[in-house]
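TODO from last week: model Spermidine/putrescine transport system permease protein.
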Amino acid sequence: MRNLFHDAPRTALTATYWAFVIYLMLPLMLMMAMSFKDASFIAFPISEWTFDWYVKVMQDKQFLEAVIYSILIAAATTLAATTIGTWIAMLIVAEGIKGQAIIFALACLPAVVPGMISAISMRIFISSIDMPTGTAAIILGHTVHAVPFVVVMVLTRLRTMPGNLVDAARDLGADSVVAFFRVTLPYLWPAIMGGMIFCVLLSIDDFVRTFFLGGYKPTLPMLIFAKVQGGMSPEINAMATLVLLVTAAVGLYAEYKTRRSRTR
């Protein structure tokens, strides 16, 4: 009886965990299943299965252009956000810098501001500096949103770094720049890699800021949104499934590389 009461919380926790997993996975499984339906509408049951929708998506010039455009924006966002976020993290832990708590709070502020408010404020900002909507404005908005995640990940790794590593490098004749690239940067690389993956996924998935800051050329979320306005179809499910599989693969690969780098 004692063992029964002892195992009850663990059993309840396990049941809650699997219920949550089913809650997350079931809609995704239904979405993927509907992408194979041999009909132009979404409804059960699925009488026949087909890959025709995937063939149609991969031959869709508009879809391919949106994918390339989204990747270019994500690459530029990742480069900018990683550079700025790493610099801010280094600034927060640097000696002799006052107001480090304020710097950290301001750096993380974009992560807690609602997306709609952030998008509206960015639209007002680019209008005030006469920046046209389009690629540059989207990259700016995505970068502001992604920087806090890089700061948190790099700062967490940076605070575990033994201070004597940099001191030893300087004792051996390395200046600040050489010590950073030879000692600090390799130590931070797992966190930087994780932050870069975060930036890529956030940028590709960002719809609200793209909607307010974008021009006439659609990104992938904007294209899917436009197609949804005409009604759901297996073609949209096929697009969403491809995006899901690619982002999941990128996330799993990043997790593998991060764990491997930390082990080394």
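Done. The domain at 52-263 is CATH 1.10.3720.10 (MetI-like fold).
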